[in-house]
Amino acid sequence: MENTVPRTVEEVFSDFKGRRTGLIKALTADVEKFYQQCDPEKENLCLYGLPNETWEVNLPVEEVPPELPEPALGINFARDGMQEKDWLSLVAVHSDSWLLSVAFYFGARFGFGKSDRKRLFQMINDLPTVFEVVTGVAKQARDAAHNNSSKSKSSGKSRQPESQPKAAKVSPPKMENESGEEEEEEEEEDEQGATLCGACGDNYATDEFWICCDICERWFHGKCVKITPAKAEHIKQYKCPSCSSKRAKV
Fold first, then answer.
1. Angle at alpha carbon of residue 174, lines to 171 and 176, rounded to 5°
2. How far apart are CA 187 and CA 174, in angstroms?
3. What distance in Å separates the CA atoms of residue 112 and residue 7, rounded to the nearest whole number?
4. Cα separation, 160 vs 182, whole angstroms
5. Range list of H helices, the chain
6. Interval 216-231: pLDDT, tens
């Protein structure tokens, strides 16, 4: 598909930026066109970002294994199963994951060492994610940083909940099992210190924002599922990425 294969850190980063720009166009400026192309009646479709800053919705490649890592499959099936902004956010999260996998595929293929991999990640990490751009989090973060810099007192990070959002339960309750295993859960929680995040497996901490999936009832760090307290206030029923994918396949 590409005429030249990126071989240096700078070339891989340039490839990453081109694909990222294309994906952002699909999910923002070209969103109506993108929405129409993701017809749930069609077969499994993928969103591809191309190095020349364009995008395309297409069927997955037929070769196995593929030349490059493939994007999330079947994004069109989830389109009508959730609100448009939630669907776009889900596609954005998968797009971020795909961009990283492509970049580090090139890094592995051409033998990037530890320092090159670290430099590549730092260059990538300096850019807002597709999700942050699509949902406006990147702009909010810039505005918050600007506002905080103009204040002498520290008012806390913008991602910390100022009030308890209805959809986000910041303090995970102890699990109440009908079979009477509540005491075991409490003992286990006392030993480990907290409920575990369903995404990263880390413990709950009181100074972190958490959200509970209304379908599987698992708890997640807000940062792990890309949900901020401000966004959570507008979510009537939160579905984690895993449950959203399952709904899409039904």
1. 140
2. 10
3. 9
4. 30
5. 9-27, 31-37, 84-109, 114-125, 130-135, 137-149, 182-192, 229-232, 241-249
6. 888 888 888 888 888 8
